[in-house]
Amino acid sequence: MSARARPAATRLTAALATAAAHLLPAGDRSAARARALLRRQLRVWRISGELADSAELLLSELVTNAVRAQVQTQGPAAAEVGVRFVWASGRLRLEVRDASNELPVMNDAEEDDESGRGLVLVDALASGWGVDRDGIGETVWVELTESADAAGAEAGDTSARHPGPALTPAPAPAPAPLSR
User: Fold this and answer.
1) pLDDT per residue over 136-152, tens digit each?
2) How far is the C-alpha of 128 from the C-alpha of 123, rounded, in Å?
3) Cys-Cys link to 99, which of 43, 95, 137, 140 (CB 3.0-4.6 A)?
4) How far apart are CA 55 and CA 122, in angstroms?
5) Within 13 Å and on the Cβ side, how many CA atoms surround 71?
6) Residue 2: is it exposed, middle or buried by C-beta count within 10 angstroms (0-12/13-18/19+)?
7) Residue 103 in contact with residue 176, Cβ under 8 Å?
8) What is the value of pTM for the model shown?
């Protein structure tokens, strides 16, 4: 009987993660931190171009809205905001969770208004979006779909992207109707 270790025939490599989640303090720097985390994850998944740009913009809007809602309902010492990114089957899902019970409202911002266009951007750029409530708070989510023409064609990129498994959302309460 030998005490020597026997090397494996092939080295195991970790598969690319298809989801990432982070908790951020609800503060002024939350949106910037969320964007940095998303950029890092998109590089891992080899996602760039218009899909990445749109994802950054929408995540920033959702995190900013979540922080504002939490500070308004819980004061300046608001808790945390959760972000989750899922990449599967050519779809990127961004989720932002907060403890607020306020539903997002799409505003009709005037030309000189400094805010109020976030959900208009979400509605225009996302292939789908909604809100899931659970009695403790809410999760606002958006989905962006990779166009068939863009897959691997941007800037001569011929590397394969990791599509991951099909999205299987966890059971959640029925989404509340959105005010428009």
Assistant:
1) 889 999 999 987 444 44
2) 8
3) 137
4) 10
5) 12
6) exposed
7) yes
8) 0.70
